[in-house]
Amino acid sequence: INLKEVRLHHINVSLIAPFTTSFGTMENKDVCLVEVVDESGVSGWGETVTSNEPYYNEETTETAVYMLKDFFIPRLLHREIGHPSEVHGMLEFVRRNNIAKAAIETAIWDAFAKKNGLSIAELIGGTKKEIESGKSIGIQESPEVLVKKVDQYVREGFRKIKVKIKPGADIEYMRAVREAFPDIALMADANSAYTLDDADHLKQLDELDLLMIEQPLAHDDIIDHAKLQKQIKTPVCLDESIHSYEDARKAIELGSCRIINIKIGRVGGLQESKRIHDLCMENGIDVWCGGMLETGVGRAHNIQMTTLPNFTIPGDTAPSSHYWTEDIVTPEIEMHNGLIRVPDGAGIGYEVDPQKLAKVIRSEERITS
Ligand code: OSB
Ligand code: MG
Questions:
Q1: Is residue 344 marked as binding?
Q2: Domains of the chain (ranges, CATH numbers)
Q3: Of 160, 179, 183, whose CA–CA distance to 171 is shortest?
C-alpha cells in the first residue's frame, strides 16, 4: 500500500448521556477521523479515541492531531508499506502517543483489507461470526439508581455489566447490584482510584463473585497490583497500565493481573493488540476488548479485533444507540440478544455515511505531502 493522501475529519459528537468515571465526566467531545487514501483510490478509516481532556491518559484529541500532522503522516505518506503489520514499527521512532499512532495504523489496516477484498478479521485470523456485547455504566448518584440501570441493560440482553467505582461509591453499589442480580456477569472498573492501603477495603468485593476488578491502582503501576492480587480473590484486570507487548509480558511475569483489557488506541494499534492477545493466550490470561466511547469507526475496529479466539470475555462494545442519537456509520452497530454480528463487508465492514458525517463535522484537512 502507498498513501497519496490523508484526510483529517474533525468532528464534534455528544453522548446521549454524560458518562462519569473516577477521573471525570465526559459528554461532548472533539474527535478526529483519519481517512487514508491509497494511490489506487481505496480509502481506509481510523479514529483518535481521545477526548478533549488528558484524564484517562496523557493524550487529547489535539495532541493526537498534532502528532499525526507533524510526525506520523509525514513518515507514512508516499512510502511503500508492504503490510499494515509494519506500520507500528515505522512509528516507533516516536515514544508513546499510542492513540495517535493507532488512529492511522487502523486506517491503514482498513484500506489494506479493502484493497484485498477481506475483512480486517480475516486479515488478522479472527474467526468469530458474532461477538458478545457488554455495557459499561458510569458512576450513578445512588445504588438504587444504579440497580435500575442494570435492570434495563440486563433486559436488553447485555452479556456483561461493568460498573465504574470510586471511593465512596463502591462496595455498597456493587453489593446492591449483586443482590438484585445474583447470576449476571458483573465487574467493577476503578480507573486507578485506589492505593495498596485500600487492600482490606477492596477485599470486601471478594464475596460478590465479580468477574474482575479493572485497574484498581495507579495508572502506571504493575508492582502494587501484583501485591494486591495476592491479597484478594477477585481477579485483577489491567487497563491503563498496559501500553505495549512488553508491558503485558512484565505484568504477566509479575502476577500483576489475571486478565487484560486490550484497547487498540492505548497500545498503539491493531498489530500490537494482536501480539498482546497472542501472548496472553500462550500464558492463560483471558482478554477482552475495552472501549473509549468511540464513534462507529473506532467500534467497528473493536468488533473486528474481538473475533480473535482469546477474547473470551464480553467487551465494552455496546451498540451505536447506547452512545449517540445518530452514529456516523451505516448501518449502525446493532445488538440482538446481547450479540453483535460481525459484518461481512471488507475492511471494518461499516461505511462512514457522508450525510451523517456532515452533521457533526467541524473542519476537514487534506494532507498530500
Ligand atoms: O476505563 O474502560 C475505561 C471510557 C472512557 C475512558 C476509559 C474507559 C471507558 C469505558 C467506556 O469504560 C467503555 C465504552 O466505550 O462503552
Ligand atoms: Mg477501564
A1: no
A2: 3-117+352-367 (3.30.390.10), 122-341 (3.20.20.120)
A3: 179
